[in-house]
Write a structure and sequence with these properties.
CATH superfamily of the largest domain: NAD(P)-binding Rossmann-like Domain
Number of strands: 13
Order of helices and strands: EHEEHEHEHEEHEEEHHEEHEHHH
Low-confidence stretches: 312-316
Helix content: 25-40%
CATH topology of the largest domain: Rossmann fold
Mean pLDDT: 92
Distance between the termini: 42 Å
Radius of gyration: 20 Å
Number of domains: 2
Strand content: 15-25%
Structural class: alpha/beta
CATH class of the largest domain: Alpha Beta
Largest sheet: 7 strands, parallel
Number of helices: 11
């Protein structure tokens, strides 16, 4: 996938976890990238990843229409990655998404990619899921040709998912797991980033479509944690917390800073996070996503007692 060197892509949220992988895929394709962030300094680490003149930074808050209009000016394509897990969901997921779509339409942008999430539904009991669903509707209402991408749980070297549980396995005598039977389809951030970049750079193939993207393996939360223990050489029992206790924990302590789970997150865990209809959703992009085990072991060695030279003991 290569593009003309004068193609300009504005990337909202480019300094975040997924953003770095999207940016790298765009650089590889030969695109110029404008990183739009509330604090552009958080994305300066991207500078060494591309050549001179291929990246620019702009301060922008998607909640402010004037900021967004300035950010998308002269852009060929726009990608919106901005999302939050707590706080004012509507201002970011709905109003912010609408601002990006409206400004992109007014500027005559060729393609818009809006990144949502599996579970997005205007009728969801969860505020997160509901705001994501309403955000998709807001985008479609002003930019009908937008490509919407809904990933499952995203993993990668910098994630707060695999690393979180690996850290717990290192510190705790046993690994407690909420909703152990909850199924997910973890997708590697590099694969997700590549698909997002392709959707922006090849609008003729992807515009107007909605993709749910997941990895090649559907796995339960308990199985993920058992695999993490095995991969890090930690012979720790995985203890599945009964739902009645998990619900009580989320309801009574979820509002506290540092709580393991909020009530809204608990509601999201009532539905599996997998690609609808089976498959991975990557078929239209022409490549296969990497499984968790093929990628994660490379960095999980840092959680072993003796690093990458440690002997790994299977718990099975």
């Amino acid at each position: 996938m290569t593009v003309k060197s004068d193609r300009l892509i504005t990337l909202f949220g480019g300094g975040g976890f997924v953003g770095r992988y999207v940016a790298q895929a765009l650089f590889k394709a030969g695109a110029r990238v404008r990183i739009a962030e509330r604090d552009p300094r958080s994305a300066f680490y991207l500078k060494p990843l591309t050549g001179l003149g291929m990246i620019q930074f702009l301060r922008a808050d998607i909640r402010h229409p004037n900021d967004v209009a300035s950010a998308v000016k002269d852009s060929d394509s726009v990608i919106n990655l901005v999302g939050i897990l707590s706080g004012d969901f509507d201002s970011i997921h709905v109003e912010g998404a609408r601002n990006v779509a409206s400004a992109s339409s007014a500027a005559g942008v060729r393609s818009l990619v809006h990144v949502s999430a599996i579970g997005a539904d205007p009728e969801s009991e969860s505020r997160y899921g509901r705001s994501k669903g309403e955000g998709e509707e807001a985008v479609r209402s002003v930019f009908p040709e937008a490509t919407i991408i809904r990933p499952s749980i995203v993993f990668g070297m910098e994630d707060n998912f695999v690393n979180r549980f690996a850290g717990m396995a290192r510190m705790l005598p046993a690994l407690p797991v909420l909703r152990g039977g909850w199924k997910l389809q973890p997708v590697h951030a590099a694969d997700l980033g590549r698909a997002i970049a392709m959707a922006a750079l090849e609008p003729q193939a992807h515009q107007g479509r909605t993709y749910e993207l997941g990895g090649p393996q559907v796995i339960s939360m308990a199985e993920v944690n058992r695999w993490i223990c095995q991969a890090t050489g930690r012979s720790k029992p995985v203890v599945e917390i009964p739902d009645r206790i998990g619900a009580l924990l989320a309801r009574t302590t979820g509002w506290l800073p540092g709580s393991p789970i909020s009530w809204d997150q608990w509601l999201m865990l009532q539905s599996d996070n997998v690609v609808a209809g089976g498959g991975t959703g990557f078929e239209p992009f022409g490549f296969r996503p990497a499984p968790l085990a093929a990628v994660a072991e490379g960095w999980l060695s840092s959680y072993r007692r003796h690093g990458r030279f440690a002997r790994v003991h299977s718990p099975y």
